[in-house]
Amino acid sequence: MKIGIIRGNGIGPEIVKATQEILLATGLPLEWEYIPIADEGIEIYGHPLPQESVKMLRDVKVTIKAPLIVNKLEGRLVCVHGDGSEHIYPSLNNAIRRELGLFINPRPSRGLKGVSGRYETVDMVIMREITMDVYYGVEYMIGDDVAQCIKLTTRQGSETAARYSFEYARNNGRKLVSCIHKANVMGMTDGMFLKCFRKVAEEYPDIESNDYMVDAACYMMAKNPEKLDVLCTPNQYGDIMSDLAAGLVGSMGLAPGANIGSAAAVFEASHGAAPDIAGKGIANPAALILSGALMLRHIGKVKEGKIVEDATYEVMGKDGIRTPELGGTATTAQFSEAVAKKVQSML
User: Fold this and answer.
1) With 186 labelled, which of 23, 107, 292, 338 sits at a CA distance of 20 to 30 A?
2) Are 264 and 58 in contact (CB under 8 A)?
3) Residue 211's beta-bridge partner residues?
4) What average pLDDT values come out for the chain (347 residues) when binned by 10 residues?
């Protein structure tokens, strides 16, 4: 089983190494295909996302990606294709998703006993649509004093996100899918997203559905998170709300994620590259390990994926082995070693 690896920046190489160790502990015959992106891409090909690397991502189909640094007020990226066409993307992360045709970003959030306090029973999945919205990156200046950004919403993108959310709910024993929007203000864009959601919901009479305006949904997350299950969101709302969910359960280090397309998938932690602690051996690899568990489920290794997930939570919860970011004293290596041993014992 060949798995792509993007080492990333900052703490990326450290948490990728930890994740690889845990995945190998499952006994699966995994092989790694290292794909040069960002600094490695520039060094080898002179571009942070060379077309050679895009082809590797397509060919390998499944990739684990460490976080990449995207600096504020920077990030616009031009990708030139073999036929001479080119696309401009707002960031490197966005470019990877759109070059591969990835369309949905599931971000699970699960509470942790001993860490999450009153939110330890949280168990929700934010389905973030990733092909449209303001993150599509259509913005420009009008003179020197006005900047404008286009909020793009398509029927196809909206229906695809809704259908994936309902399919996920049906296949994973979830009972409720909620549409998140601001259709009371943006009646055309978010209004289309909501109308498409309601249309698709009719195809799934076995799954309950409702909708919340995004501000009300954030209040609900903080006040009564047990009322939320699967959340179908436009791009920007999902990005923001998944960070809020991570904060409620205790850390961005507990926030795994995936980017799913019809021909490829990229699995990544929802947090950033944390260059301030890079090389210190104290980074929390849990989010990327849990993303690795999502990857195993995606390729049909459901049993092994569940074991990796359960082992990671048990080490952090019951065993109390945590990195400093979660109030513990374990190093990255000590934590990953404990999880690997737990995985082996569970098998």
Assistant:
1) 107
2) yes
3) 179
4) 95 97 97 96 95 97 93 80 89 94 97 93 97 92 96 97 98 96 97 98 98 98 96 97 95 94 96 93 96 97 96 95 94 97 96
Q: Torsion angle of alpha carbons 37, 38, 44, 47, nearest 10°?
A: 100
Three-class secondary structure of residue 101 per DSSP: coil
Q: Which long-range contacts (CB under 8 A, 24 or more apart) does 274-282 make?
A: 274/10, 274/11, 274/67, 275/9, 275/10, 275/11, 275/69, 277/10, 277/11, 278/9, 278/10, 278/11, 278/14, 279/14, 281/14, 281/331, 281/332, 281/333, 282/323, 282/324, 282/325, 282/331, 282/332
DSSP H or E stretch at residue 33: strand 31-34
| 142 backbone dihedrals φ, ψ, rounded to 5° | -110, 95
**Of 346, 234, 339, residue with least CA distance to 15:** 339
Distance CA 131, CA 127 (A): 12
Q: Pick from 110, 137, 102: which is nearest to 126 by CA?
A: 110
pTM passes above 0.90:
yes
Which residue in 177, 72, 167 sits closest to 124, CA to CA? Answer: 177
- Full set of structural domains in the chain with CATH: 1-103+255-347 (3.40.718.10), 117-249 (3.40.718.10)
DSSP, collapsed to helix, strand or coil, labels residue 138 as coil
Neighbours of 320 (CB within 10 A): 13
67 contact partners, CB below 8 Å, separation of at least 6? 8, 9, 10, 11, 12, 268, 269, 271, 272, 273, 274
The dihedrals phi and psi of 41, each to the nearest 5 degrees, come to: -65, -40
Which two structure tokens, joined as six digits, stand for 147?
């900047």
| Amino acid symbol at 183 | A
Instruction: Please calculate the CA angle 169-291-239 and round it to the nearest 5 degrees.
Output: 70
Q: Is the dihedral of CA 303, 309, 311, 317 positive or negative?
A: negative
Give CA angle at 304 (115, 253), nearest 5°: 30
Q: Say which amino acid occupies 44.
A: I
Pairing of strands 2-6, 31-34: parallel
